[in-house]
Amino acid sequence: MEIEANRPRLLALTSLRFFAALHVVIFHLYTMHVTSGPMWYRKLSSIGYVGVGLFFVLSGFILVYTYAGRSWTVASFWRARFARIYPAYLFCLLVTAPSFFYAVVVLNDTNLPSFAWFRSHVLLSWILPPLLLQSWVPQAALAWNSPAWSLSDEVFFYAIFPLLAGWLMPRSRRTLLALVLFAWAFSLALSSGYAILKPDGVLHVDDQASQLFWLDALKFHPLARLPEFLVGACLGFLFLRGSIDRKWATPLALIGLTTSVIVVALSPYIPYTVLHNSMLTPAFGAIIYGLALRPNWIKVLEIKPLQLLGEASYSLYLLHSLIIGVYFNPFQAMHNGGFVHVVIGVAIMAGISIFAYLFIERPPRRWLRPKQRQLPITSEATKAW
After folding, report:
1. Are the CB atoms for 353 and 313 separated by under 8 Å?
2. Is the pLDDT of residue 383 over 60?
C-alpha cells in the first residue's frame, strides 16, 4: 500500500517526550536520595530509568513517520540528525566537563566504582563521549555526562535507519507485526536470560549496581537496545498504512497507561533487568500509537506550554544531572525541603532547559540543517532524539 506523504503534526508526541524526560529526572533524584514525597511518587521515581526505553520506541516511530514515503537522501538525513542533536550535546559536554574532571581527577570516592574505572581509563573516558561512542564500551557508558549514553545508542540507530527503513518499507502488515513481537521477545529473552544465568556472578542486581560488565552491556550497548527502536519503526509503518482505526486511539492509550501503572505497582517483584529493558516496550508502543491516532481528548496534550516543554526535553535530559548536583547539594541533607523542594528543583531544571532550547539548540540547528527542499516536510514537533 502506498504511504501518504501529507501528514499532520503529532503534537501530543512532543508533549510525551517531556513526560519521558521528567521520569528520568525523578529517577536520578531518587538515586541521589531526594525521595521525599508520597508513596506513589517514590515508587514511580524508583523505575524512572524506563523513560529511556520510551524514547527509543518513540524515536523509531517518529523517524518512520517523518521520512517514510518522502524524498530524501542518506547524506541529508544524517546531516539533519547531526544538526538536531550534536550542537546541544557538545554544549552539555562542555558545561559538565568541570564536574566530571573534579570527580575523576580530584575527588577520590571509593563508594563510586564507576569513577574508579574512569580514573584508570582516563583516555577512553575523555575521548569516547565527544565521539558518541561511549555505549560501545559498557564500563564507559556513563562517562562524562551519564545520561548521554542513550545518545550514543541513538547515533547508531540513525546510522542504520536508511538501510532499516528501506528494508521495512515493502514488508506486509503481518510481517511488521511479527517483527514487533520478535523484537520484544528477543529483548525479553536477553533481560530474562541475565536474571536467570547471572553472568556477572552477582545474585541480586538493582539500579545501584555498577561496573558489572554484562549488566552494563545489557543496559547500555546499542545492540542490546536496538529491539526497542525496531519496535517503534515497525509500528510507524503500521501506523502510516492505517492498520488500526482511529476508534482504537483511546483504548490503546489507556491499555498502555494502565499496563504501565500496574508494572509500577509490581516493580519490586519484577527482575531489574527485565524491567529496565523490555517489560514496558509493548505498553510504550500502545501509548505512542494511541496518541498518534489523535483521540478526541488529545488537545489537552497539545497546549503550547506542554509543546515548549516537549521541545526543551532534550536539553532537560542532557542537563538535569548537573543541575541536580548543584541544586540538591549531595553533601547536605537533601530531605529538608520535602516534596515542595523537589517540585521547585524540577521547575528550575525546566526553566534552564527552555532557555537552552531557545538559545543553544535552535540557532545551530537552523544553520546546519540542509535546505528544506532536500528533506521531507517536517516540523519541530515531529522530531525525535
Report:
1. yes
2. no
d(CA 174, CA 162): 22
Crossing angle (nearest 10°) for helices 213-220 and 173-197: 160
pTM, to two decimals: 0.92
Please write the tens of the pLDDT for every residue from 10-64. Answer: 999 999 999 999 999 999 988 887 766 778 888 899 999 999 999 999 999 999 9
Write the burial class of residue 113 (CB in 10 Å: 0-12 exposed, 13-18 middle, 19+ buried): middle
Alpha carbons 332 and 353: distance in angstroms, whole number: 25
220, 149 Cβ separation under 8 angstroms: yes
* 329-367 b/e (C-beta count within 10 Å ≥ 16 → b): eeeeebeeeeeebbeebbeebbebbbebbeebbeebbee
- Give dist(CA 106, CA 259) in Å, integer: 45
Residue with cell 525479553: 188
Expressed in percent and rounded to 5, the helix, strand and coil fractions of the chain are 75, 0, 25
C-alpha span between 10 and 129 (Å, rounded): 31
* 158 contacts 72 by C-beta, under 8 angstroms: no
Cα–Cα distance measured from residue 235 to residue 237, given in angstroms and rounded to the nearest whole number = 5
pLDDT at residue number 382: 39
- Find where cell 555526562 sits: 145
Q: Quick one: cell of 190?
A: 536477553
Q: Which runs of consecutive H residues, i.e. helices, occur in 169-280?
A: 173-197, 213-220, 222-240, 249-266, 272-277
Number of residues written out for the chain: 385
Q: 118-177: per-residue pLDDT in tens? A: 988 999 999 999 999 999 999 999 999 999 999 999 999 999 999 999 999 999 999 999
Give the whole-angstrom CA distance, residue 105 versus residue 100: 8
Residue 102 C-alpha from the chain's centroid: 27
Distance, in Å, from the CA atom of 34 to the CA atom of 339, rounded to the nearest integer, reads: 9
